TrEMBL record:
Transmembrane segments: none annotated. It comes from the Bacteria. The gene is rsgA. Residues 97-244 form the EngC GTPase domain. GO terms for molecular function: GTP binding; GTPase activity. One of its GO terms (biological process) is ribosome biogenesis. It holds the Pfam family RsgA_GTPase. This is GTPase RsgA. Gene3D superfamilies: P-loop containing nucleotide triphosphate hydrolases (3.40.50.300). PROSITE patterns: ENGC_GTPASE. Keywords: Ribosome biogenesis.
Length: 288
């Protein structure tokens, strides 16, 4: 069963040390309030504890104690999508691990915003995953082709797909960019149509959906947890809750078109450096 969820010989090599310690491998399917639903070789199991300093997220491959009550290790991550946590403090918030492709979903209504799209693209680019931009609600814009053209101009090499989640064959339009056992994540604002796309790909109404406000297309959070689904097409999908604040958590110097985002990234780098010095001072002081 694990191979269906992306387990590979490379993962087995990474796990070898923990196998000798009596642990079992598993992948995090869902994260809720300090507990993790983990797929093991032949079952799913809720694990309530993790070794001190570990914070598994949905998508992580883990080494679980043989008693199935504690995560002992997180295997090396192929990718990690993380943003600056909401608020003023310079702290990271990991969102998803071991994602091969991130679908960045934007509705062609009041949700369409190229400046915000750039933030998502850098978020994905610096994570180690690749990006695909999904322009949803094509039927709600008078000139969807113009939006596709404008989006491709700022897409940083990402593929752009235009669709209507309610009218089009979503599996046919999105399924061709992923292989068996690969993992995709859906990123975007509340109301962009992520849950509708998830339901279309799954072939069932697993995720609740709600209408958006007509005046600004703002939606309420219908997805409140990060959960990994195995699709009939043989790849995996993670629908993430909508993000109101999108600030990439990165030290990399990336090319940025928006002067506002460029200034914010420089400010964040300075705050991260200050935070690092503070933590080093605190750790040094605690040893005395």
């Amino acid at each position: 069963m694990l191979s269906t969820y992306g387990w590979s010989p490379e993962r087995a090599d990474q796990f070898a040390e923990w196998h000798l310690r009596g642990c079992v491998p598993g992948r995090v399917l869902r994260q809720e309030y300090g507990s993790w639903l983990i797929l093991l070789s032949d079952t799913e199991h809720w694990v309530r504890h993790a070794r001190k300093g570990l914070a598994p997220v949905t998508g992580d491959w883990t080494a679980v104690r043989s008693t199935l009550d504690c995560v002992e290790a997180i295997l090396p991550r192929q990718s990690l999508i993380e943003r600056k946590a909401a608020g003023k403090r310079p702290e990271p918030q990991p969102l998803a691990a071991n994602v091969d492709l991130a679908f960045i979903v934007m509705g062609l209504d009041h949700d369409y915003n190229l400046a915000r799209l750039e933030r998502y693209l850098i978020l994905v680019e610096t994570s180690g995953a690749r990006a695909c931009i999904v322009l949803n609600k094509r039927d709600q814009h008078p000139a969807p082709d113009a939006c596709v053209h404008a989006t491709r101009a700022v897409a940083r090499g990402a593929e752009v797909v235009r669709l209507s989640a309610l009218q089009d064959d979503v599996p046919a339009l999105l399924g061709g960019v992923l292989g068996l056992g690969e993992t995709a994540a859906l990123l975007g604002s509340s109301g962009a149509g992520k849950s509708t796309i998830t339901n279309q790909l799954l072939g069932s109404n697993v995720q609740l959906t709600q209408a958006v406000r007509e005046d600004d297309s703002h939606g309420r959070h219908t997805t409140t947890r990060r959960e990994l689904h195995l699709l009939p097409q043989g790849w995996l999908l993670m629908d993430l809750p909508g993000l109101r604040e999108v600030m990439p958590w990165t030290d990399e110097h990336v090319e940025v078109r928006s002067s506002k985002l460029k200034a914010e990234l420089e400010e964040l780098r300075a705050k991260r450096a200050m935070r690092k010095r503070f933590l080093q001072y605190r750790d040094t002081k605690s040893r005395w």
